[in-house]
Amino acid sequence: MGIMSVHGLPGMGGARIIYIEAELIIFKQFVTEFNASLICLFQYMA
Predict the structure, then answer these.
(1) pLDDT digits (tens, 9 = 90+) for 2-43
(2) Which of 5, 7, 31, 38 has its CA 20 to 30 A from that of 21?
(3) What is the 3-state secondary structure (H, E, C) of 1-46?
(4) Angle at Cα 15 formed by Cα 2 and Cα 4, nearest 5°?
(5) What is the dihedral of CA 28, 33, 37, 40, to 10 degrees?
(6) What is residue 2's three-state secondary structure?
(7) How far apart are CA 36 and CA 43, in angstroms?
(8) Which residues contact 12 (CB under 8 A, 6 or more apart)?
(9) Cα–Cα distance measured from residue 32 to residue 15, given in angstroms and rounded to the nearest whole number
(10) This prediction's pTM
């Protein structure tokens, strides 16, 4: 997941912040979907 952060070069401070924010959004969406799938799995097993 942390590929974009590695490419933040000196002199690209503003762009790097945008990349980090985009990565956080993607990560939050992934966690939300993962939690939803876990809930569905538990409901299926119950």
Answers:
(1) 444 455 555 556 667 777 888 889 999 999 999 999 998 888
(2) 38
(3) CCHHHHCCCCCCHHHHHHHHHHHHHHHHHHHHHHHHHHHHHHHHHC
(4) 15
(5) 100
(6) coil
(7) 11
(8) none
(9) 26
(10) 0.50
